[in-house]
Amino acid sequence: MERKQLAPGVHLSYDPAEKLNRCRISIHFTFPARRDTATAHALLPLVMERGYAGCPDMTDLTKRLARLYGADLTVDGRPMGANRNLCISVSGIKDRFALAGEDLCGAYLELALGVAFHPCIRQGAFDPEAVAIEKQMLRQSLEDELNDKRLYCMRQAARVFYGDSPMGIRQEGYLEEVEGLDGLALAQAYREMVDSAAIEVMVLGCTPGQAQRVEQAFLAELAAVCRRPRAVAPFMAMPRQQTVHKTEYFDMVQAKLCMAFTLGRPMDLKEMAAYRLAMALYGGSVTSRLFLHVRERDNLCYYCSSSFQSFTGSMTVNSGVEPGNAARAEEAIQEELADLCTGPITDQELEDCRRGLIAGLEGVEDSLGGLESWYAMEIIRGGPITTPAQARADLAAVTEDQVRAVLRRFSLSVSYLLTRKEGPYV
After folding, report:
1. What pLDDT is recorded for position 383?
2. Nearest Cα to 291, choosing from 245, 127, 281, 355?
3. Spatial separation of the C-alpha atoms in residues 77 and 17, rounded to whole Å
4. Element (H or E) spanning 75, and its range?
5. According to the model, what pLDDT value does residue 24 have?
6. Confidence of residue 75 (pLDDT cuts 50, 70, 90)
7. Bridge-based pairing state of the strands 303-309 and 83-93
8. For residue 401, how many other CB atoms are within 10 A of its CB?
């Protein structure tokens, strides 16, 4: 992966990905999350994906993608700690596979730049009809959150855990604000993003000449923008606190338990390999303690897994349990963490987790999506960019003591339970 700066706050990354038969052009906008524009930024990707000035009709856009041998256009928004990332991505087969010698890369480039810099804004506002349709979709998604009890429990735990901190600004937006959004407010949020976000252009699977063409076309678009780039928010972490227990009651068969742990300080990127192996050992794999002990041996959970968020220095454990087993499950989850910190770790379980992670990293470069996800995360995290090969080597060198050292830093902050009223856990 080659990366160079094109302008202040703007970079281009390029990987020829010669072994793959597809290419991909993506434009990432990364910017600090703001409470006052959170719902607009949740709605923005939905509206932008409907088309752009050169192809404003969604049906025509779908037909155009089909004519490009089934090319894909996606516009996604995602949280990155106290930042938000909006990514516009177009992918399809490489030019050499075109049956009639079409300039496919040029078409992908036009689509990506059109969506990014020429959205359907007229008289300073997005199309009211498109905004109304996508507002209804966003509203329904927010209203349906309660129907997915696992998702609802995770989000409720996060809301208690992060509170009013920048990391707690909801990526999905706020239901009570959806109705008040209009095309003008959405256009203002879009312009602020283009003017101030850090921008990463990723060109994957193209020839060097095509990559140069992408760079020149992008710079031409950028020249028409009055940029005032702002720095992205740094890594953050919630302080340690006395554990907060919250319980909500529903008419449900399977209870949901989400536990949020904090490091108490931002993580050190140099320890990323140790955190990866620690999560796999604790609850991030089928050979983990939570899976083999809490779920399989003790039969306390239908599922039980852990995940680590590097941007926020936090770990979450999610589980589905019998209502009567919730207290025992929470205790067992904490006991497994304590045992890893102080008790024996066998060579077999450590190596099983290590091999599983390394095998997964060996597949990163087998798809454009894997490549983009990997390098986009590396870039947004900041610091030296680690290749998958370097990450595999780092994992191979992680010791048992390093795993224990990172796990000992976690402390439980929030335990959030959804259960039946007659359940004994209160």
Report:
1. 85
2. 281
3. 25
4. strand 72-80
5. 98
6. very high
7. unpaired
8. 9
Neighbours of 331 (CB within 10 A): 12
Contact 55, 125 (CB under 8 A): no
Looking at this protein, which amino acid is placed at residue 272? M
Tokens of 312: 């926020």
**Cβ contacts of residue 95 below 8 Å, gap of 6+?**
101, 102, 103, 104, 105, 210
Q: Which of 392, 326, 334, 387 is nearest to 359 (CA)?
A: 392
Cα(146)–Cα(20) distance, rounded to whole angstroms? 41
**If we measure between CA atoms, which residue out of 84, 175, 170, 87 comes closest to residue 136?**
175
**Share of residues in the chain with pLDDT > 70 (%):** 99
Written as six digits, the tokens of 352 are 């099983």
112 sits in which H/E element: helix 104-117
Average pLDDT of the segment spanning 203-208: 97
Q: 13 and 205 in contact (C-beta within 8 Å)?
A: no
In the three-class reduction of DSSP (H, G, I as helix; E, B as strand; rest coil), residue 52 is classed as strand
Length of the chain: 426
Q: Which CA distances in Å does 105 have to 59, 93, 216, 243, 245?
A: 22, 9, 14, 53, 53
Residues 6+ apart with CB under 8 A from 145: 151, 152, 155, 172
What is the DSSP annotation of 214-276? HHHHHHHHHTTS-----PPPPP--PPP-PPEEEEEE-S-SSEEEEEEEE-SSPPPGGGHHHHH
Phi and psi at 318, nearest 5°, equal: -115, 135
Q: Under a CB-based contact definition with an 8 Å cutoff, are residues 311 and 235 in contact?
A: yes
Coil, strand, or helix at residue 410? coil
Measured CA to CA, the distance from residue 114 to residue 90 in angstroms comes to 11
**Which residue matches tokens 């312009």?**
191
Identity at 171, one-letter amino acid code: Q
DSSP characters over 167-223: GGS-TT--HHHHTT--HHHHHHHHHHHHHHSEEEEEEES--HHHHHHHHHHHHHHHT
Residue type, 303: Y
